[in-house]
Design a protein that fits this description.
Layout: E1 2-8, E2 12-19, H1 21-27, H2 48-55, E3 62-67, E4 70-75, E5 81-84, E6 106-111, E7 117-124, E8 127-130, H3 138-148, H4 150-164, H5 166-192, H6 231-238, H7 240-273
Antiparallel strand pairs: 1-2, 2-3, 3-4, 5-6, 6-7, 7-8
Keywords: Membrane, Transmembrane, Transmembrane helix
Transmembrane segments: 242-260
Length: 277
């Protein structure tokens, strides 16, 4: 089990626990999940292939959000979501995701395709603060790399944003290649089907009432013709399916970098305002 934590100066200690039903049942007897692990989960040093095999074998990561040790809500998956920082009506059961107002305190969870939590962020209007990752986890190693180099702090969020748009890039690049490879197979399969014709549909006559002609005066505007676009603009627009996902990915990376900087500034401010002990 992994535990993300944040010391908030007003709310207190906010924690997000990520684990499996067996792990939660050992700590919470009222845990609602009933899945049982048949094999031990992959270690933190496991390869991506081992983690992918484990992910698609039917094992589900659960979440629990707590405040000062008191459970607020539980969730049956680790999909990306925004969790309100308030106690659910029945915090002992798995909650369904609903809409969360941007003006109320909330915790956002970011996960990768393997449903591994990679970022946990506290948000409240303009406040954005990232949780401390679990010690020794892959997320903690990534955070340490970001802090060790300003180049990595700028590059890693960009690569993460491109990764989120990577499916679109892969589709646009691989689709023509797969089309050429599968074309002989499709043509061979088409020859296996018998030829058939569809009889023509009968003509149906539906009476349509005649409406009176209405004339509405339209003012004549002398609009000068627009200038022609440069040739490079036509070229860019023709290949927009290639560069648009990349631009979106870079935009996502820039937002992630901005949130990281805002998070570090807020943590320093909280640390400075904390009374000395």
């Amino acid at each position: 089990m992994e535990t993300w934590s944040l010391e908030h100066p007003e709310h207190g200690t906010i924690t997000l626990e990520c684990g499996y039903d067996d792990e939660f049942r050992d700590l919470y007897p009222d845990w609602p999940g009933e899945e049982q692990l048949t094999t031990p989960p992959p270690t933190r040093e496991a390869t991506i292939l081992e983690r992918a095999r484990w992910r698609f074998s039917g094992n589900t990561v659960r979440l629990q959000l707590s405040l000062d040790g008191e459970s607020l809500s539980r969730y049956g998956d680790a999909d990306e979501k925004a969790i309100p920082l308030k106690k659910a009506e029945d915090p002992h059961k798995f909650q369904l995701m609903g809409t969360v107002s941007r003006t109320q305190p909330r915790v956002t969870v970011d996960s990768n395709t393997l449903r591994e939590v990679i970022h946990v962020t506290y948000r409240d209007e303009d406040t954005v603060v990232q949780f401390e990752p679990p010690a020794g986890s892959r997320a903690a190693k990534r955070a340490a790399s970001l802090e060790s180099s300003p180049v990595k702090r700028a590059l890693f969020p960009m690569l993460s944003g491109l990764g989120k748009a990577g499916w679109a890039i892969a589709v646009f690049i691989l689709a023509p290649i797969l089309g050429r490879l599968l074309q002989p197979v499709i043509e061979w399969l088409a020859r296996l089907f018998p030829d058939f014709t569809i009889p023509p549909l009968p003509d149906l006559y539906l009476p349509v009432p005649s409406y009176p002609d209405l004339y509405l005066p339209v003012p004549h505007l002398n609009v000068p013709p627009l200038p022609e676009l440069p040739a490079w603009v036509d070229t860019v627009m023709e290949y927009r399916k290639m560069w648009l996902p990349i631009v979106i990915g870079i935009g996502v990376g820039i937002i992630a970098l901005r949130n990281y900087r805002r998070s570090e500034e807020t943590k320093k401010k909280w640390q400075a305002d904390r009374p000395a002990t």
